[in-house]
Amino acid sequence: MVNPEESFAGRDPERAIVLAYAPSAARAGFAALLDLDDTLAAVLRGKGEPMLAQMRLTWWHDAISKLDSAPPPAQPVLQALAAACVARGVPGGNMAGMIEGWETLLDAPVLDDVTLSAYAEKRGAVLFDCAARLAGAEARAPTAAGGRGWALADLSRHTTDPAQRASAAALARAELDEAFARPWPAPLRGLGALALRARMDLAVPHDQPVPHGAPRRVARLLWHRMSGR
């Protein structure tokens, strides 16, 4: 069960660092994708009925898909996605795939490994693929693994079920080990930093807050920017 009192991807001091590592032309789109992810997380975080959450997710799926053929409505996230992502060659239909990952959490009675993997692929790998396109780099298997690991690590810190937490964390570690099997290329180091943050988060005991912005974490992120590791 997801804890409705906590944010999946709340803002923190390291968000600006991650965005700064992306190519300058891709930063606005990368930020828009992360804002979309925050918005979708808030849908599940709400205390309403699951059917209402599903209706909201369906609305977002339709609205993002329509960005390929129509101007965005007066909604800040959609306007940012249209200007910084669709206009730069990332179709709305691709970004809408992220919503299917969140729907997986909403629909599944039990978050087993198959369900967790499906969630991670849709939420994480899709977001990383879209961001890689913005950066002008081809998405590679490690990029997708980084996205899946990021999504799973994030979920592991925001689920109230110990067994689900352990499963998500174990899957996240395996994906992130694959993602860092070799250095990340320079255009993708913003994404690499996001995956690295997730890896560092996994090392923090669940009952302790993640020390976002701590000097050691910032230094590690800086080393990633220089080395890709």
Describe the structure in your own words.
The structure is a single chain. The chain has a single domain (14-227), classed as Farnesyl Diphosphate Synthase, CATH 1.10.600. With 229 residues, it is mainly α. It starts with 13 loop residues before the first helix and ends with a helix. Helix 2 packs antiparallel against helix 7. The protein has helices at residues 14-20, 27-45, 50-65, 76-84, 92-95, 97-107, 113-134, 141-156, 162-179, 189-202, 215-227.
Give a quick summary of the entry.
With 229 residues, the protein is mainly alpha-helical. 65% of the residues lie in helices and 0% in strands.
Layout of helices and strands:
Layout (H helix, E strand, L loop, with lengths): L13 H7 L6 H19 L4 H16 L10 H9 L7 H4 L1 H11 L5 H22 L6 H16 L5 H18 L9 H14 L12 H13 L2
Helix pairs in contact: 1-10, 2-4, 2-6, 2-7, 3-6, 6-7, 7-8, 8-9, 8-10, 9-10, 10-11
Any low-confidence stretches, pLDDT <50, length ≥5?
A: 1-10
The number of helices is 11
Q: In total, how many beta strands?
A: 0
Structural class: mainly alpha
Beta-strand content bin: under 5%
Helix coverage percent: 55-70%
What's the CATH architecture?
Answer: Orthogonal Bundle
Sequence of secondary-structure elements: HHHHHHHHHHH
Looking at CATH, which topology would you report?
Answer: Farnesyl Diphosphate Synthase
Report the top-level CATH class: Mainly Alpha
User: What global shape is seen?
Assistant: globular
Radius of gyration: 16 Å
Give the termini distance in whole angstroms: 33 Å
Q: Mean pLDDT, nearest integer?
A: 91
Number of domains: 1
